[in-house]
User: What shape does this take?
Amino acid sequence: MRSKLLMLMLIIISTFVSYGQKNTIQPDVKYRRSSLHLILLESDDFPRKATVIDAYNNAPFPDKYNNHSLISKSFAPNNYPISDDERTASGVKKNALGGALSNAESSATAGIVDKNESDMPLIIQKYITDKKIANQLVAKWFDRADDGSFDMNMISERGQYNATEMEANIAKGSTRGVSLLSDAGEELIKNTFVVFTKLKFVNNEIVAKAIKDAVEEEVKKKSLPSFMMKGVQKGIDAAYNKGKEGYSVWTSAYLYRLKWNDSISSIFYNNYWINKGKMDMQRKSMFDTTGLFQLESVGEANATSLVIFSLKETRTEDQIVNIATTRNVDAVFAKLQKKYDVFKPKVPLYTGYPITAKIGMKEGLEGGEMFEVLEQSINEKTGLTEYKSKGKIEVDKKLVWDNRYAAIDTPQKTDSTNSVANPAITIDRTTFSGGKKYYSGMLIRQIK
Assistant: This one.
């Protein structure tokens, strides 16, 4: 009996030792993030505007991206009017619903939908060109000084390159230097994004009434028989009564990416590069005025969150609006990531077995999403970074981390089939299923 008990203890100990070895955590894994600059589109007045804008300005920067912020972080679209000729040339059409809402007579509707909403891509492009945002992004990548000179410090830090070696290879144009610069261009500079965000806080009743009136006007044009009209009107009224409760936070996000390729890179290094300590006013002026650098539109996404002020709520109304605004901005980012592959961040595994990562509900996870597991390596022949697919994993629906803004982690129990006797645990990471061959530091990326 004693020998059996001793044997059982040894098995338990060896199991936990083995588990501990597989579960080695390396939270300081370095990996190459995409870089991001955020710009707020300043709206006309709307309810609780100060609270909404403060929530946006004080929200944590998206932690899956490098902070590539410029000095200019907001602008007023009204300062960049669009002419009818410009609309015609770009094929822009007015939004009928937007017009119905913005033309509502009640002063309470002011700013619900901007009259220039359909013009927004044209307005943003005008601003990008006027402020030379692409030039500013490139200048930041290379730590451009007031005298126009550059260095490789930021490239080196974010890409884990040797800055001195890269700068020397720029000068001599060696094969090794070309491969390093190409890798930096593909891995870092090319993955520089700008998100333009527009916020609204809307009284749902006003919006519902405007929509109701617009729909009723369209129905009248159909000249329906009276017996059909009653049924249609009943449906319109039901939709109105359901949609008029509370308020909503509206977030629109427009995603742009810095254009960077071998041709642009070559012109930059050959025509505009100035070493630190050197003075070249001609090259400096050429960089300041060039139209070589551009931002290209990737796409857009929208998110809406319902806000209800309940008598049972212990938080203040401003606190509720703050949380709703921040979470709504996170939600629109999650939509952009799911919608556009180029914007999807790579995230390192936190542990290999069990398979976990520091992402969760803030990134839009609900459970069941599929991720590809990638192993990073350097191609010896080309010197470029490669990512080899090592398999697929799936988010465990029962173990999704609630990392949303102001969320309170709720203790959960492990599944009843778990060998541990169902202790309560606090979830601080998301768990995946899909194998035991992975290790911390491998990268994962969501797939459709």
DSSP finds 14 helices and 14 strands in the chain. The longest strand covers residues 295-307. The chain has two domains: 32-211+243-343, 346-448. The chain has a mean pLDDT of 84.
